[in-house]
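Ticket reopened. Same input as before:
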Amino acid sequence: MADRRQEILDAALALADEGGLDAVSMRAVAQRVGVTAMALYPHFSGKEALLDGLVGQVLADLPRPDPDGSWQERLSAMAHAVRELAHRHPSVVPLLFSRPAVTPDAVRVVDAIYQALLDAGVPSDQVARLERMLSTFVLGYAVSEVGGRFSRGTLGPRERRGQLPGTELPAHHQLGSWLDAPWSWEAEFDADLADLTQLIRLAAGPGQPPGA
Amino acid sequence: MADRRQEILDAALALADEGGLDAVSMRAVAQRVGVTAMALYPHFSGKEALLDGLVGQVLADLPRPDPDGSWQERLSAMAHAVRELAHRHPSVVPLLFSRPAVTPDAVRVVDAIYQALLDAGVPSDQVARLERMLSTFVLGYAVSEVGGRFSRGTLGPRERRGQLPGTELPAHHQLGSWLDAPWSWEAEFDADLADLTQLIRLAAGPGQPPGA
DNA sequence: GTTAGGGATCTACAGCGTATATATCTACAC
DNA sequence: GTGTAGATATATACGCTGTAGATCCCTAAC
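Engineering reply: fixed in the latest deploy. New output:
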C-alpha cells in the first residue's frame, strides 16, 4: 500500500511541526499512525530515509510559478514560497542544507530558476553559479530567520554592546540607534531580493534585455 | 579549574571532526577526557551548553582581518576564513545557523563587517541589512559545500536530467553541457564574492568612494 | 490447498541525556 | 589541628532512542 507511506510522512511532518525534529522518533511516528515502530521499516529503510522522505514531502508543496510572469516575478514568487515554507515547517527546512536536490520536485524548481535566469539574459556559463548563489541566499535567509540566527538571544543590541568595551566595537558604537530600530524581516527579505535582482541584470550585461 | 573546561571542548571538537556531530555524546567526550559522563556537568549545564561552547570554540579560531587593508580585502579575508573554518570543522559550522551571534568573538566579527561596510560608504540604515545578507550567503555557501547540498548525490547532472522527461526540464536541456563542465567551488565562491562586492559599491552610491 | 511474501508484531540490545545520591579533595575559619 | 563549605568526580538508575532478529498473520498466485 502506497498510502501507508504517505500516512507515515504526514504523521512525521505533523510531529516535526508540533515539537521540532527531536519529536520525530520512530516510535512517536508509529504511534501516531497506530502501529508499532518496526512497522515503519517495510516503508522506510531507516530513520535517515524517513527524513529524506520528509524533505521530499515538504518540497512537493512548493508551488510552481506562473510561467507567464516576467523572470523577476517568477524568481520573487519562488523565493517567497521558500521563505513561507520555512515558516510553515521550520524544523524540516534546515535539512535542505545537507541533502542535494535530487527529487523530481527539487530538480523542477532548479529548472525553473535556470529558465528565469536565461530569460533575464544571463550567459549560459553563469546560470548554474547564479542559481546556486540565489538559492543559497534564499535558503540561508529563511533558515536563519526561523532557526534563530537573526534573533538577539535574550539580549538586545544595546546589552550586547555593553558586554564589550566600547572601544572594542567601534562600528556598533558609530551605528548607534540604527541597530535598535524596529525591523521587518519580510521587508528586509524583499530588499535583499531587489539587490540580487539588480545583480542578475548586471550579469546579463548590456545585451538583449527582456526580449531576445 | 578553567582548563578542564577547555580540555572538554578540545575533546568534543576532536570527536566532531572525526566522526561528525553524532559522535559527540556526553559519554564519548567524557571518556576521551578520562572521566565519567556526569563529570562534565559541573562545567556545562547540559549537552546544549556543550554544543554552544563548541561553537564559541570554533568561532574563536576566526582570524581577525588586518585593519590596514581596504574594505574589500577585509571582507574577502573574513569570508574566506569562514569558508576555511567550515572545511576544517564541517559538522560544527551548521550549528551557527541556529544560534545567534552572542559570544564576544562573534560580535567582534560582526563589528568588523559593519566597519568594512561603513568604510565602503554604505549608508547607516543599510549596514545591518547588508551585513546579514553577506553573512547569510557566506555561511550558507560554506555549509552547503561541506554539508552536501552542492554535491550531486550519486548521480551526475546527466543522470538527473534523465530521470525526468526532457520536456519537463527545458532549461536543463538548453544549458546542456554547461552543467557538466568541471567546476571549482573556490573559484565560484570568489566570483560570488566579487558580485556581492559590486552590490556593496552600488549601495554606497555615487557618494564619497574610498576616503570619506 | 498450499505456498510464498509482504506487513505487522514482540522482544531485546546497546547507546543516549541526565536526575539523584554519594564520595573525594581543596581551601579557608576557628 | 579540626571542622566545614564548596567544587569536582563517581556510581547507579530511569526512560528514551534506533534497529536487529524471530515470529505471526493475511492476502494472492499457482
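Chain A touches chain B through 61 residues (CB under 8 Å). The mean pLDDT of chain A is 91. Please confirm and we'll close it.
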